[in-house]
## 1
Amino acid sequence: MAMNVKADSNPLKMNSKIKGKNLIAAVKAQDTAKLVEYASENKSKKQVFTFKKALKDLTTKEIDLLWEDLNKIIIKQAEIIISFTTKGSPNKSKSSPNKSKSSPNKSKSSSKKVCMEVSRIIQASIDIAFAMLDNNLTLSQGLLHMLVFLNFIIFKIPDFLESLKYSIASLCEKMYQLNFLEAGSEQITFNTIIYFIKRTLQQRASKKTVKDVYAMQSFIPKIFTMSDVDVREVLNLYKKCCTAPVYLSMLEGQKIITSILIASTSHITEIQNAIESYLPSAAM
């Protein structure tokens, strides 16, 4: 007689459930090596396991606890990166006189390697956050706390970890676009728009960088009202945007310039002067 097979007996689904529980256990134990391993499987086309599948099989309470533990990991790991940024090259006074002259460079190279490893741990957490958004799951407070923290430190992350900075900004952008942030709480991503704008002003900036800013265009009028923002820095960035060829050559860029002019009424003369000095024929 044939036996009825329950849906949960599907080996692929069972494997996903087991990995979901194992993910929770690894994070709770702060097993960062296992977390990175799962992140690698998540991105591999050869593996059945994905964060998206694993999260579907977890309860809301389990996900909340997962993010509580992830935040502990992220803060601890981020301190390593911030320490590298603030201290720079190793303190030569602590170097042994018997070491070769190249030892400081070797030490710095070693520190960079550590930061690269740490960035993979933080990236794994960001990947889990993206999976939650893809599943349209209720956001945990822990995830929002991570977003606030990463937004705050984005400019403390060294340039050789640019991919990590871009991942942080992209997560903030996606949450902003999907309206996951309640009215008034958008300020937790204020560094994201500044980061995106700075990327557009780099040498050989691509049109994609302008589109990143355009995706958060509605944020532009709000940024001057935020207490944590350096108004003068933002104004200088806005002036550069209004005269940057990559903006002037794109419809999205021109719309951003319009938003800047509308948002900066108290500084309109200063911005107009910047435009006129770049385009002498522009009469505004």
## 2
Amino acid sequence: MLEWLETFPYGFKADDHSTWTKEHLPEHMKGGMYHRYRVQYEKVIWDARTEPAVIDAFERLWGTRELLVSFDGMNLTLPSTDLKPSTPWPHVDQNPNSKGMQCVQGILNLAPNGPDDGGLVVLKGSHKVNETFFKLHPETKGAGTWGSFDWHGFNEEEVDWFKDRGCEEIKVCAEPGDLILWDSRQIHYNKVPSTQNTHWPHANIFQEDKHMRLGKPGTYSRDRLAYEPEDIDLVLKLAGVKVY
């Protein structure tokens, strides 16, 4: 992933921490979430998706190896002097009109991830009362925070509703190689690190379009990947392009 950042014309160097700043990085959000530049198709992302142990875990979950994946981005949060503390953005990634467990999200953790490191925060058990919340708050279904791909953000009062029902806010800690899975109905968000570790959580579905970088319209785009995936047959099946 650091090599991928070095392919951009902004001067980022993995071995020079003075370049670990916004001025030397491609456009991103929330401290390190990358959705553009076709990153979701890069070799490093497909290597993670096609890792046999990852596929085995989802096979046990869904009862089949004929799996489909989303076209996520990646999160590489670099410790930096210009990295501001993150503000919680609790959300779910499943529309309430879709009942039951429809999607399971995951993080393939690549670095030691402790309580002070960046990474995943969840409201434990919130998926169990998700349907009840939307039944009691029907006006929320039409709220402006609904994104085009099931994303919905909660305000502080709504989060308190879940906490009042025993949903505890937890920072998930993990070791390198751990696979973290959660129901998309569970409220969650990511936070930036307060230590000098780097991390890679997940994202959602984003299209390649015009973007802003450092407050100005971005002028750099890509029509080819920096690093091509290798197991094309499995990639095409997971992408839903080729039948199993």
## 3
Amino acid sequence: MKSFLTKPKRKLSPAPEPCPGDADEPTEVKLALLSSLHPAVDQETLLDILLAHDGSVSQASTALQHQEHARPGSKKSGVIGYQQSLKQYALPPPPSGDATSPTKKKLKSKRGSTLHLYDPADVAEHTPCTIIHNFLPPEDANDLLRELLDEAESFEKITFKLFDNVVSSPHTSGFFVESYEAMQQQKADYYYNGAKLTDVRRITPQLAKVKPVVQEAVNREVQQRIKTRYPGGKKLKYQSPHAWVPNSAFVNCYKGAQESVGWHSDQLTYLGPRAVIGSVSLGVAREFRVRRVLPKDKDKDRDKDGGGSGSSVKAAEDDPDAEGQISIHLPHNSLLVMHAEMQEEWKHCIAPAPSIDPHPVAGVRRINITYRDYRQRFHPRHTPRCRCGIPCVLRVVQRKRENYGRYFWMCHASNVPGKEGCSFFQWAEFDDDGNPIFDGNAGPKQPP
């Protein structure tokens, strides 16, 4: 008995050390940390345990570990998921005047790093895009995917000339229009990268079935964007006031993690200024990266009559992080709407991925459909032709501050391997609704 009473007492387990920043991080970030440490636990349970431990991530994690050890037969889920928005982990918004409640940290892109966005509200706030997850009924999405995977077997890479080198796109693509007449017009009248397309296809049954659904969703998102994001709740200058009606679609196929497309803006030649594009992603999830393009020259004066977005561009110029990359994660069956400010002021790309999670239907392939509204007023019969005799390409000044946002027509025949272009250049003029105004007078012979 004496030996028992005099036996040294066993030391108590040390209290868990608090995680750095435990007291400073908002609740949603703490929950995200807990979720990464304990992926098999649902968010409601994580929130309850976090609140029970006064917001301490370390103490909540320790409690969860004890619970997991108490259930040795339990197994973690083997299902591969994708990261959701941090907003789902957040507490309800605090009542006004409650300064002690945690608030969501403002997201911001940084030069030299990539800001990853998953939540539709974050995408709409920080980029010129909106995204809709689970866009189509699952069976419709899979039917469309299967149909286009079959079509993609005969897709080809696009070959063009870049800086005197002949290059080909790092993915394959196909072009679809609504009717046989449209197919013939495309082959006879339209030019892409200085040459005519030879592979123009009739829209497939599933593409036709999905088109009105895309059209309705895009028009709804455009009106919401105008109402909530644009100055005065009005459309941008040069943006068409008419409903967006898709009548063509480029379909791209990316096979494997390394097939990609570099930084670019989509051509406006047949879409007109301030174009809207609806992009459906199917199959493997990939990152869609965007970044602002700001003038780089030292001239501090800007042409106030240019097509740029004025004060927002000036504010971005003063921010050293304004051109930081933003990554929008595009899961299977999502619709991304690229709004009217996208092509003029931003560039986008699909970057090579370190690895990908195979899709049960597509395997390692991603199918991307970009629905477009080809406007009749931008038919090649109406637009300027260069001295090479082909319709000009429509571009916008993105790098020189003096003419930032101004549009121009120029020759693009030199994009074709083995061909030389001419020096044709002409400033483009539009009315407020983006309709072209032609006076037949060519401007300077050198691009801006």
## 4
Amino acid sequence: MNVAKALRNEYPEATIILAGDHDIHTDGSTNIGKELAEKAALAVDGWVSLPPATTLCDWDDFRQQYGLEATKTAFNQQRYKPSIMPIPLTRIDYTAPEFNTSLPLRKGSDGFDTRQDYLIKGYLPSSSVASAYGASGSYKSFLAVSWGCHIATGKPWAGKPVTQGAVIYVVGEGGIGVPRRIRAWEQTINGGSPIDALYRVDCPIFPASPESVQQVIQAASDVKAATGMPIRLIILDTLARCFGGSDENAAKDMGAFIQGCDYIKA
């Protein structure tokens, strides 16, 4: 609501449309998304548009299922003013193409306008598997520590905004180098305060091993519970130590490693 009011103050003549979430519950619970959207619209003399659905749904869910053009049409058709028409929405039926395959088929450029979220704007995409590579002694681990500390504290990195969250740093080579670097960062950038949302695993983990993957997933669950924050970044340092006895240059072994990383990410 505060954002809507700020926009109204900035643009007093503009038409403001609240694209709300349709939080439909089968048990009859309050539709919070609809309620909040209508409340904000009433405060700024605006409009509300909710996706036509019979289950929990937001507009991006609708777009992914029915495509951009159908979403544009539905968005306009579903628009209403709460103060003028506070009545239940009429469901509009859209039929998605039916395919026999279980693969997620989508038309041509459908989804081109999906927003790319970043952990570090312009550098590190969220929900991805990334690799920092370079010659030996090129400070890759220092970079990883810096990224982890900035994301765990929410501090901008090199002037770029970050998405704050908990971080797990797998110190595959063990030793005291990484904790000392973290402490140096705390003293120079964090006012000496410890970073509560950054946890270390002082041994290698092996994404190609299903058992190891489950251990990482459990560790992530524990850290999330301890910090109350979502896990944003898991750092494996180094690739060689977390590759086990496999061959980094073998496509089969690298494929198993990446598959394990994807499973952890999911």
